[in-house]
Amino acid sequence: MLKTVVAFGWLVVVALNPTAASAWGYQGHRVVGAIADQLLKPAAKAQVQQILNEVDERGIDLRKAAPWPDCVKSVVRHDDGRFHYEVDPDHLEFEVPCTPFNSARERARMVDYAARNWSTCSYTPDGFERGCHNTFHFVDIALQRSYFDRNFQGTNPHDLVATITAAIAVLQGRPIPPPFPFSIKDKKEALLLLAHLIGDLHQPLHVGAVYLDANGKLVDPDTAHKVDPDTDAIGGNAIQDGVAIPFQAINLHHEWDDIPPDLGDAATGELMDAAKSVRASEGAPEGWPAAWATDTLLVAHDAFKSLSFKPTQPPAQAKWIVTYDNHTDYLQAADAIKRKQLAKGGARLAELLNAIWP
C-alpha cells in the first residue's frame, strides 16, 4: 500500500495563467522518468541512451529528459515573427530542470520545435496567441463521460492523446497518422515528448474537466455540442481554492500539479513497488494512449469528488471558487491518488518503450 502523507502544496502562490499549467511540475516529471529508467529492458535502455545522448550530450536519461516540453515554453514569438528562448530574470528557478538543454545546440532545437508547431492550430486562452504546441499537454473531457472518445468535446487533433500517438509513430518509424498537425522531426524529439507527455496523461486534471455555469453548477458541453468559453474551467485553472490564504491566487489545477514533497524528484522504493504492480496494457501500443486516457478520466472523477463550486466576487482572478465537504479527507485522498498516478506513469512509459524496442 502506498504511504499517505498530506502534502497538497496549497502554500504555493501562482497566478491564473492557463499556459503555465505543467502536470506534476518538473519534480513529478522527473519522478515518472526515473521510474521508467529503472524498468527499461536492455534493448530499450540502449536505444534511449543512444537517442538522447547524441553529439555533445552525455548522461541524459528519461529522468532528466522529462521536463523538456515545459522548457520549450520559454520560447517566445516576437512581433517580427522570430522565435527566441528567453530566460525570465525574475524567476531563474524556472531554469533548474532545463539545465540539461542549455547548450546552443539544444536551445536551437527547442526554438525550432516551437516555431514548427506554433501556427498549426490556434491557441488563445487569454486572448493572445500562445502557440499550438501548448495544446499538446492536455485533454479536457467532461466529467459526465466515463471513457475517452475523439467525438467528445474537449478533444481535438492536437490534444495530449493525439500528440502521444504521433510520437509513438515516429519512434516506430511510421508516418504520423492524419489528421494530426504535428511536426516531430526525429526520434529524439519524439522521445523527449513521450518522456513528458506520458506523465501529463496521468495527472487527472490534464484529462478530466468540469464545465460550470454562472452559479457553479455542472454543464455538459457534449449536450451543447460545443465548448462554451464562459463555462470552461480551463482544466481547473479558473477555479480558485476555497481555503486559500487571503490575497493569494491558488487554483485547483496547480494544487494537483504539486507532488508530495517527501518524494523528491527521483524514484522512491514505494513508487517502484507500485510501478511494478501496474497491470500490463492490452492490444497494440498505438491504442494505449486512448486506453490510458480512459483510466485517468475515471481517476479524475475521484479528484473532483466531494467538491462544490460557486462564482467568485470581482476582482478575483478565477471565475469560480471550490469548497470541500471535508478538506483534510480530500487532501489525504489526493495524496494517495498522486502517488498511484506517478507510479502508473513511470510504469507505462517504460512499458511503451519496451514494446517499441523489445
Give a description of the structure.
The chain has 358 residues and is mainly alpha-helical. It has a single domain, classed as P1 Nuclease. 38% of the residues lie in helices and 6% in strands. It is built from 12 helices and 7 strands. A 3-stranded mixed β-sheet has the order 5-7-6, with no helix packed on it. A two-stranded antiparallel sheet has the order 1-2. Strands 3-4 form a two-stranded parallel ribbon. β1 and β2 (83-85) form a beta hairpin. The radius of gyration is 19 Å and the shape is globular. Residues 1-21 have low confidence and may be disordered.
Q: What is the structure about, briefly put?
A:
The protein is mainly α. The chain contains 12 helices and 7 strands. Helix 1 packs across helix 7.
